[in-house]
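pasting for the record
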Amino acid sequence: MKSSKPTTQPSSSSSRSEASVSHPPDTSSKASLKVALVEDQPKVRESWNRLINSFPDFRCVCACASGEEALRVIPDHRPEVILMDIFLPRMSGIECTARLKEQLPETQILILTAMDDQELVFMALEAGADGYLLKRTKPVDLRAALLDVVRGGAPMTSQIARRVIESFRRKAKTRDESVRLSVREEQILLLLSQGYPNKLIADQLKLSIDTVCSHLKHVFEKLHVNSRTEAVVRYMASKRPEL
């Protein structure tokens, strides 16, 4: 049964030119970064689609109306970022996030919600989401959040961040002490915690990107997590003494 939700559309108070002036394009990448959208309301979906395509450094490669469609279509496009509505018919955005992360662990997923519901957002982050945005986010802030997440950031409020840290700190206490990370894996996690994307981690450690991705896959398996954000928070919580 689908939860009721307001038909909030992204704010149009900021123009494309304003976004370009406030946040210069990331010139480190020649090609536009690919974004996939999952939103069941047609008008809202089209509005977000147009908005994403108005940014000079992003393009919307697919806009799906359901979680089931997203699982069929998005993996073929291999986007850098997925914008995921939390309320979807049948399969929820939270379940869709968890299943997409299994197929696309390197893709960053931002949850879209019309309400700042901390419990639902926290559940989405536990499922593997890398951050979240309110649907009323202004265009200039949406673009900044997209750039932030592809660079290794995790857009979220400080209240949600604290809940994530507290949760993984509790889990760290009870995790199997036989789990050990290699020196290389710890180096990669340290750089992740400093906001380094995979390419810069590879450059810093003089590794190939494929090798970094392979190490991250092993880290996810050892720590039983689904995303970069979870891995970093889990690792830091396990290293920090309880106050």
